[in-house]
Each structure stands twice: as structure tokens, then as C-alpha cells.
Structure prediction request, 151 residues.
Amino acid sequence: MPPKKIRVSVSIKPNKLKVSPIRVTIQPTGEEVVWKCSGGRLDILFNKVTSPFGSPQMQAAADVDLPSGEPITTTAGPYPYTLVITPDDGGFPITVDPQVDIDDPGPPRNAGSRSSGSSSNRAKGKHRKAAKKKAGHRKRATKPHGPKKKR
Prediction:
């Protein structure tokens, strides 16, 4: 099954650059980022050591989809990168620093586990509550009674 495409659109017009969304979140499996830039060539630069994708550098001509591929890491967290957009009109390259977040899928679900509202968990909760209440009513032997004595 091909990965789900999470799109990032980049557009450049005279005196205006738009990156939407500037921060994108994907799952560690089954999803990929696809960038597309209208109005210029797109270069994407991740840190060579921490890149979440197979290639830390990617390039695409204007109006061409640039897929990242699925992440090669399952480590959740932010992955900043640099977008360099070179306008078609020959203007100076523009640099932006957006971010890709790899989402934490959480612990695996156990199909045989009970829900948190099961009767055994409720019973445990009642016992704990009763024990705390009982402990609160006990007098503490270490607590001094009366005024403090001066030495």
C-alpha cells in the first residue's frame, strides 16, 4: 500500500513567499511529505546526521511533486530543515526554515487488555481511597505537641 501523502505547498510571487503548512506532522510509518513549489525551483536540506528521510537533500523543478518517502526513523520529534527557493524569474534564492514532526504513535495496544473502567480497577481504587482516608486520621507520633521549647 503506498504511503499517505501529506502535502506542503510553496508558492513564490513578486515580494511574497508562502509555505503552507510551515510545520507538518506525519506518522513514522505509512505517511510521507510531498512538497510542490509554484514559481521556482525547490531545494530541501535536512541535517545529514539527523534527517528522518533516506536522503538529507532533495531537489525539484517548479510545479513538480517532491516526495520525501516514508521516514527511516521511528524516533518521534521535531526535524527542522531548510527550504531554498530559487525563483523562475532569476531573482535571488529565498531561504525558509520550516519543520517536520514525526508523531509518537504511543504504546502498542493489547487487544486482550481490560479497559480502564473495569470493575477490578474500580475496586482497587476504592481500597486505595479508604486506606488514604484511614491513614489521614491517625495521629503522628513524630509531630510535637504544644509550644516549642527554647534551648
In short: Confidence is low (pLDDT under 50) at residues 113-120.
